[in-house]
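batch job 7 of whatever, protein = Homoserine dehydrogenase
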Amino acid sequence: MNQDREPIRVALLGCGTVGTEVLRLLHDQPDEFAARTGAPMLVTGVAVRRPHKHPEVPQHLLTTDAHALVEGDVDVVVELIGGIEPARSLLLTALRSGKSVVTANKALLAEHGSELYAAADASGADIYFEAAVAGAIPLLRPLRESLAGDRINRVMGIVNGTTNFILSAMDSTGAGYAETLDEAGRLGYAEADPTADVDGFDAAAKAAILASLAFHTRVTASDVHREGISAVTPGDIAAARTLDRAVKLLAICERVVDEDGTESVSARVHPAMIPRSHPLAGVGDAFNAVFVEAEAAGQLMFYGQGAGGAPTASAVLGDLVAVARNLVVAGKGPRESAHAQLPMRPMGKTPTRYHISLDVADKPGVLSQVAAMFNDNDVSISVVRQQGRGAEASLVVVTHTAADAALKSTVDKIAQLPVVREVVSVMRVEGEPS
């Protein structure tokens, strides 16, 4: 380390669970971080809304004026306040003045990433955001850098710990969604308002970031088809188990190639059945895991803690070290790569598979009528199982791959058949040959 090197001055916006860990680690290991970066790192201020709630932070560092802190004499702004505003304005101010940024703000990146990248490019500043997706798991940097020379075809993963805890608990205990959500709240895995997690908003923002990096195309959260887990029932979990599958909320980003060679990007978040032999099926509790399929590298899996103060702080500090190194050697980090500009494929045209459970009348010809409806809609059946008699009669169908709109239309028409008493459940199937 160059002892004469001026310190890297860091402004910290937000000091919640993650921010507190970032501040603690910088304070406890100053020599270690200085050795890694080539210069000391100095936190010059911590912006919070209520200073009295942060007695652990040296009082001379605390401020309620985040804008003044960002506009002051700092080199790097670390943003951990979340949400769109004032985070967007603060980071644009920093980037436009040539100050590098480290952020964990998935919602902001998913909605306004292109604006932030443009500001960084114009001033030559860095923007790093490893902690925005999958907490401590080193995932975004491999997509941005390690796999930059490869062609990624698919990214599929569990990127929300709350929903994974709920679905894993439903699978292991047989409990329903509502009681398992309550348990997740008691254990601290679910927020008081769990909407962002259980309705898929959190995972959709992360999917937008993953798709943008993997396919060199600007993808926003609004481009991502989104379904949550509140409609998943113990019956769905049990049905998956009979087929040796597990139910997971998946973020799926893929490059789709038509027969004529035309490429597009599909990005979606929804519950799906996957084989228990698939690596993602064994990811339990609040852990995250992402499965990447690339042409040269083949199949890769990234697994670890997807949230929490210390794990997320690890990713933030990794970015901070990278930014500081760049400042020391007058280098630059990776820039936005959106050169492919592939179109987004609507969910209705996205190829997928369905698992359909039907409550049917116990009479001859039921199977043939249902099968005829699939045939009329050009949807091929992979597996069919009829069981029970009388009021307990049921029919389970797993399709081959077809356009999602064709599958939905088929289910709607089957529901109108006189021999079908009820469409009990419909769930997509992923992670196995079609």
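notes: The domain at 140-305 is CATH 3.30.360.10 (Dihydrodipicolinate Reductase; domain 2).
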